[in-house]
C-alpha cells in the first residue's frame, strides 16, 4: 500500500547504510518526472529525486513493464541518460521473463539491491485497484518470475505500492498485492523456503 512516494525516504535510509543501491523496479511508469502540479515530490518523481541524491547505482537499475501515457514525447530518455535499463511492457508480452531475470541477476551482481514493485506494472485485468491503471501490462505469472528471479541477490529491502482496494470491488488487487509481497519476503537473503 501507499503511493510510490514512500520509496524515496526508504531509499534515503537504505543508502545511508549501504550506499547507492541497485534497483529492480516493476511499474507501468518510470516515476522519473520532475514535477507535477508544481510539486517536486509526488508518486511520479521518486526515482528522479533518488538519482539527484545519489541513492541509486544507476548502472544497476532496471525498470520492467513500462508503458502507457506520458507527459514527455520521449518518456525513456531521462532513464536511459542515467544508465537505467528500461524494459517496456511490449518486450515482455507473450513470453517468460526467466531469461530477462538471468540478465538482471548478472547486472545486479553481489552488491545491495532494492526491489520496488508498483501494482500497476500488472495489467488492470488482474489488478484494477490502483490509481493509474494502464492497459497491456504484465501477468501475475510474469510478476512471480521477476520476484523469484531475484532470489540469491543481495536484497536489502523491498516494497509493493499503489494498491488502492477501493477501486476493486472484487478484492483481487489486494489479494495479488499481498501474495507478491509475500513472495518478495521469501526471496530475502537467509529466508529458507521449501
UniProtKB/TrEMBL annotation:
Keywords: Hydrolase, Metal-binding. One of its GO terms (molecular function) is agmatinase activity. The keyword Chaperone does not apply. It comes from the Eukaryota. GO terms for biological process: putrescine biosynthetic process from arginine, via agmatine. Pfam families: Arginase. PANTHER family: ARGINASE/AGMATINASE, GUANIDINO ACID HYDROLASE, MITOCHONDRIAL. Belongs to the arginase family. Agmatinase subfamily. This is Agmatinase, mitochondrial. It comes from Spheniscus mendiculus. The gene is AGMAT.
Amino acid at each position: 500500500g501507499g503511493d510510490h512516494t514512500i520509496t524515496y525516504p526508504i531509499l534515503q535510509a537504505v543508502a545511508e547504510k549501504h550506499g547507492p543501491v541497485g534497483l529492480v523496479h516493476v511499474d507501468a511508469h518510470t516515476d522519473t518526472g520532475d514535477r507535477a502540479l508544481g510539486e517536486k515530490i509526488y508518486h511520479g518523481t521518486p526515482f528522479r529525486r533518488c538519482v539527484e541524491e545519489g541513492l541509486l547505482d544507476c548502472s544497476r537499475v532496471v525498470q520492467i513493464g513500462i508503458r502507457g501515457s506520458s507527459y514527455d514525447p520521449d518518456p525513456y530518455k531521462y532513464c536511459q541518460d542515467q544508465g537505467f535499463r528500461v524494459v517496456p511492457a511490449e518486450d515482455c508480452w507473450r513470453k517468460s521473463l526467466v531469461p530477462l531475470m538471468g540478465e538482471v541477476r548478472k547486472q545486479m551482481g553481489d552488491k545491495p539491491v532494492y526491489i520496488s514493485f508498483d501494482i500497476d506494472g500488472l495489467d488492470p485485468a488482474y489488478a484494477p485497484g490502483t490509481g493509474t491503471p494502464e492497459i497491456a501490462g504484465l501477468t501475475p505469472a510474469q510478476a512471480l518470475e521477476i520476484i523469484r528471479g531475484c532470489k540469491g541477490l543481495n536484497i536489502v529491502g523491498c516494497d509493493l505500492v499503489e494498491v488502492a482496494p477501493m477501486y476493486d470491488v472484487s478484492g483481487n488487487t489486494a489479494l495479488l498485492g499481498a501474495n507478491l509481497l509475500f513472495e518478495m519476503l521469501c526471496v530475502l537473503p537467509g529466508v529458507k523456503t521449501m
